[in-house]
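Hi support team,

I submitted a single chain yesterday and got back a structure, but I'm not sure I'm reading the token output correctly. Could someone confirm the output below corresponds to the sequence I sent? I've pasted both exactly as they appear in my results page.

Thanks,
R.
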Amino acid sequence: MRVYRISQTKYSHDRKGSGIDGRWNSLGQYVIYTGGSLALSCLEKLVHSVGTSLYSGNFSVVIIEIPGNLPITEITTKQLIKLDANWHKVINYPITQQLGDNWLAKMETAVLKVPSAIIDLEYNYLLNPAHPDFDKIKFIDVNVFSFDPRLKA
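Hi R., thanks for writing in. Yes, this is the structure output for that exact sequence:
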């Protein structure tokens, strides 16, 4: 399965994550966020970035191959709704961060499949660089990526 990560080009070869807190991890927890499609990765970057930085930055897309036989842990929308129907709202980051931090701590899989908070029926894939199976995940290509100025001003 191919997944996609859009980042500043200077970070495109990073394989450990930034440790910055996000929807699925708290500060100091290292994880790499990817999207199940290039379009989803683009939209995720759009909603989490300031408009001007998208056009002044130097971006790349990293294409990553997750082997089909690699186990993947999944958190479903149904599970999240049971915890809080508004799990996708920023105010509820502590809920999803705890789930992601627990996944990282358990070290059961190198990949966590999570629902996108911006597009129903789409998924993001988190990669745990500290997991022994992470070396089986291949960063296969890096390409220049430009945001169309019509997407966000």
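A quick pointer for reading it: DSSP finds four helices and seven strands in the chain. Let us know if anything else looks off.

Best,
Support desk
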